[in-house]
Specification:
Helices cover 34% and strands 0% of the residues. It has a domain of 74 residues. It is built from 3 helices and no strands. The longest helix has 21 residues. With 128 residues, the protein is mostly helical.
């Protein structure tokens, strides 16, 4: 019985090694922007004059919704991050990295003292 158990352990150990080498390597997870770019790689971006395509990011901040005159720190940073990551050319990116904006949060809690995002961006016209 010990011989049979030892034989089965060695058999399964060698087969697991062989089968694991035959499997394709695990693909790394892609970000939303990377998936968008791979799916829409054949679509020309020449009409996106701002070099920012808002669909390249998931719109958590919902910048296309009704205009708000006030916003909290979290939504401001999310909106800035979306515009920063939606640029498909480095020259169109907003001037500061999102991590460098942490100083904007004042001592008053979840409030940005002055934060204005006035930026043009393009969107896909799904009607055409």
């Amino acid at each position: 019985m010990k011989f049979l158990t030892l034989f089965l352990v060695i058999f399964f150990a060698t087969n697991i090694t062989v089968f694991s080498q035959a499997l394709p390597p695990q693909q790394t997870e892609k970000t939303y922007t990377e998936m968008f770019d791979s799916v829409f790689s054949v679509v020309s971006r020449t009409q996106a004059t701002t070099k920012i395509l808002y669909e390249r990011v998931f719109p958590f901040a919902n910048l296309t919704s009704s205009t708000m005159d006030t916003s909290n720190y979290t939504r401001f940073i999310q909106a800035y991050s979306e515009l920063y990551r939606a640029a498909f050319e480095p020259s169109a990116r907003l001037p500061y990295n999102v991590d460098s904006l942490k100083f904007l949060k004042g001592d008053g809690g979840d409030i940005v003292d002055i934060g204005i995002l006035h930026y043009k961006f393009n969107m896909i016209n799904y009607d055409n």
